[in-house]
Amino acid sequence: MTDPLRILITGDTFAPDVNGAATFATQLAAGLARRGHEVHVVASATARGRQGTRVEEHEGVRFTVHRLRSLGYPGHDWLRFAEPWRIVQNAGSLLDALQPDVVHFQSHLVVGRGFASAARARGIRLIGTNHIMFENLMDHSNIPKVAQGRITNALWADAGRVFGRCDAVTTPTRRSADYLERMTGLHHVHAVSCGLRASDYTVSPTRNRGTIVFVGRVTSEKRIETAVRALARLPKELDARLQIVGGGDLVDELGSLAASLGVGDRVELTGFVSSEELRARLTGAEVFVMPSTAELQSISTMEAMASGLPVVAADAMALPHLVDGNGYLFRPDDDADLAVQLEKVLRASDDEWQALRHRSLELVSVHDIETTLDVFEALYRGEDVVDPVTELPHLEPSSADADAADALDPEAEPADESR
């Protein structure tokens, strides 16, 4: 058995924040601690007065978390950043005190930037993981749209400089790795899934007809209004309902939209829920919808797949990586097309629906968190790694599937009977 490592994981967001980066960092820290490593986490404090070092319990594991004094991001309900003018000093002090074998940052914006600089100056091995799409951050800025393109390009260039200090760089999917390389000029970015433990999720023994579920932050970049508008287009005899599971700044706005479209009684906005309720909502649904157009992986979609749900998702960024024979892609922001794809699942025969379920479970099986932990352990030790397989061979649709899809798609071309 190899010797345990002293690992320092840093990021601008960490549990109890609810977002992909925080979820991954929490699962990573807990998994590594469970394997016997000494894990320290450095993150922004969740509120004024909560800074300091303490042992916290996450995912049933206890490890040390260092919370830095932070400032709330204007106009955002949960996002906070450590004080940038103190981050290099704070990073240096912690690194000198802890002397970790490796530093792994999850965001280069503030905390990761400071620790990247301090770790490099001390010769400490440095790993960086990117979870950010700057195009998403523009949704929460007051920057005029005419200037957003230039600013986004400048932000990616800056990211390239910070990640360029790393011994290894990762991001959750091959698509997002290719995108990061293209936007920053980096090379050899590893694609390592965020991973999940499928045994944490329950597959319903029955088909729960009519329930469409979305799980995630209820914010503008998720494009949830597209799902609400699609629900209003579905035929009434389907008796479809939409559950929007999660909190965020658009809860009231989406409720008003649903009411204005006449589906207020069929849209449930739960707000923040416990992990147990979130998993129960997935188990109790018939189909999962993800309308976001800028997902670098989408842990929520993987959670739905582990719950045995077919998936209907936007044909954008990394989502096609998760939809292959287990559901359908729709044109981004096109609620009419989303309604067509949802109707395919809702009208599927039980045998067809079970085939979609089986494929979801098959596809998610290669995203096991233990494989993710194996890869990061190797990266931390400076070993050569081969990126894990996270995509199964493409599943070609049958002719029956194609005929059924054409029957529901009003824009489909007539079949060529000569073939």
TrEMBL record:
Keywords: Glycosyltransferase, Transferase. GO terms for biological process: carbohydrate derivative biosynthetic process. Residues 18-196 form the Glycosyltransferase subfamily 4-like N-terminal domain. One of its GO terms (molecular function) is glycosyltransferase activity. Residues 403-419 have a biased composition (Acidic residues). InterPro entries: Glyco_trans_4-like_N, Glycosyltransferase_grp1. Residues 391-419 are annotated as: Disordered. Signal peptide: none annotated. It holds the Pfam family Glyco_trans_1_4. This is D-inositol 3-phosphate glycosyltransferase. It comes from Agrococcus jejuensis.
